From TrEMBL:
Transmembrane segments annotated in the record for this chain: none
Gene3D superfamilies attached to this UniProt entry: FAD/NAD(P)-binding domain (3.50.50.60), Glucose Oxidase, domain 3 (3.30.560.10)
Family designation: Belongs to the GMC oxidoreductase family.
PANTHER family attached to this UniProt entry: CHOLINE DEHYDROGENASE, MITOCHONDRIAL, GLUCOSE-METHANOL-CHOLINE GMC OXIDOREDUCTASE
Protein name, per record: Glucose-methanol-choline oxidoreductase N-terminal domain-containing protein
Source organism superkingdom: Eukaryota
InterPro entries with a match to the protein in the record: FAD/NAD-bd_sf, GMC_OxRdtase
Signal peptide range in chain numbering: none
Length: 95
């Protein structure tokens, strides 16, 4: 059994790195590199934010199909007051 997962850091983290005196590390500076590294293959069921995904990079990415427990976990997060964003790469202030 093999699997791979791709996750980006939070926008706020990159912006803090830049604020510490590291020019070129803000979210806006680094997003083009994330996009350049990815070829995103949207899934029919997934509400992707295509502005944060690449189309011609070497890493082939696709959202995985949800597993049965996913809906229950998602519902519990929403019931706890967390905001739901269908595309985990669509960044908010602290995501």
């Amino acid at each position: 059994i093999n699997g791979t997962l791709i996750i980006r850091g939070a926008k706020a983290d990159y912006d803090r790195i830049a604020a510490l005196g590291n020019p070129g590390w803000s979210w806006e500076d680094i997003l083009p590199y994330f996009k350049a590294s990815e070829t995103f293959h949207p899934a029919e069921w997934h509400q992707a934010d295509l502005t944060v995904h690449g189309t011609s990079g070497p890493l082939q990415t696709v959202p995985h199909d949800p597993v049965p427990i996913s809906e229950k976990v998602l519902d519990s997060f929403i019931d706890s007051g967390f905001e739901y964003k269908p595309d985990m790469f669509a960044q908010g202030e602290y995501e």
